[in-house]
Amino acid sequence: MATLQLQDIYLARQRIESLVRRTPMEYSPSLSQRLGVAVYLKLESRQITGSFKLRGASHAVAQLSAEEKSRGVVAASTGNHGRALAYAASRQGVKATICLSQLVPANKVQAIRDLGAEVCVFGRSQDDAQRQAERIASDEGATLLPPFDHPAIIAGQGTLGLEILEQQPDVTQVLLPLSGGGLFAGVALALKSASRNIVTHGISMARGAAMHASLAAGYPVVVEELPTLADSLGGGIGLDNRYTFSLTRELCDHLHLLSEASIANAMRHAYREERLVLEGAAAVGIAALLDGLIEPRGPIVVVVSGRNVDVDQHLRVLAGADA
């Protein structure tokens, strides 16, 4: 297995500088007052396609040869990677096919179609969609670009970590949504390369957290994918995982699992106190703070990963219906 280096993340930033947005870091008065230490929100929800995924997708497409670009790209996604890849491919003149399971919210499916990608809805899980993407890659010669377990994807997501270090150089703890591990691995690599003393927290939902189960087992395992407010964190990590499992195991200091009620409470807090409309996966860092899971030692940076929530679902959560 090739080793990912900090230099790869710096090179990724050079390649995607004109393709992605440098997102803001904002002080949170409400969370800072609650914890008694400075808390900052890294608002990747303000990225062009509404989530951090654009960084990795843009870098992965930029890395392709002219011949590979001519054959197109294909990927499985829970929504945000597909949206980002559709946008990145369109910007660089490449055909994209996105495979989604039936669990992906309709708003995310339509957003991908609106960006010009061909959409294939298949199966009842992220793993089903992944198998379909692999078939298309084999049959049509398209380049398979997975949502997380790919060095170019990880390096692209790691550019977010460089921005955290520049915007808040004295950061002591960083809270990151954790699913397949592409975001976590890339950002944590950037942070730990700067200082091993920066504490990294991976945060997921209690319902179907594949990375958590895999780390507990010591190897990648299959976990049943269940409906959750944090739908972007659903799906497996791949039984043949080559990069993110080992990087997460090495770089994750703490891993926290959250109830659906905690995620819903954080979504409400984000809207009422921070004026942010967030999908459940993006609110997990806030939820961990509200639940008292994080030692109050700052400055703390919470990565707010995306805003692509179904409007009706968000309204139900605001009204107190946690589903």
Describe the structure.
45% of the residues lie in helices and 14% in strands. The chain contains 14 helices and ten strands. The strands form two sheets. It has a six-stranded mixed sheet with strand order 1-2-10-7-8-9, with helices on both faces. The chain has a four-stranded parallel sheet with strand order 5-4-3-6, sandwiched between helices. Helix 1 packs across helix 8 and helix 3 crosses helix 5. The mean pLDDT is 93.
Task: Kindly list the characteristics that best describe this protein.
323 residues, alpha/beta, six-stranded mixed β-sheet, four-stranded parallel β-sheet, 14% strand
Task: Note the topology.
Blueprint lengths: L5 H11 L8 E3 L1 H7 L3 E5 L9 H10 L3 H6 L1 E5 L2 H12 L4 E5 L5 H9 L3 E4 L4 H15 L2 E2 L6 H17 L5 E5 L4 H13 L4 E7 L4 H8 L26 H8 L2 E5 L1 H15 L9 H7 L9 E5 L6 H8 L5
Parallel strand pairs: 2-10, 3-4, 3-6, 4-5, 7-8, 7-10, 8-9
Antiparallel strand pairs: 1-2
Helix pairs in contact: 1-3, 1-8, 3-5, 3-8, 5-6, 8-9, 9-11, 12-13
Short note summarizing the structure:
By secondary structure, the protein is α/β, with parallel strands linked by helices.
**Helical percentage:** 40-55%
Shape: globular
N-end to C-end Cα span: 41 Å
**Spatial order of the strands forming the largest sheet:** 1-2-10-7-8-9
Main pleated sheet: 6 strands, mixed
Overall pLDDT metric = 93
Order of helices and strands: HEHEHHEHEHEHEHEHEHHEHHEH
Please compute the radius of gyration using only Cα atoms: 18 Å
Low-confidence stretches: none
Structural class: alpha/beta
Strand percentage: 5-15%
Helix count equals: 14
Count of individual beta strands: 10
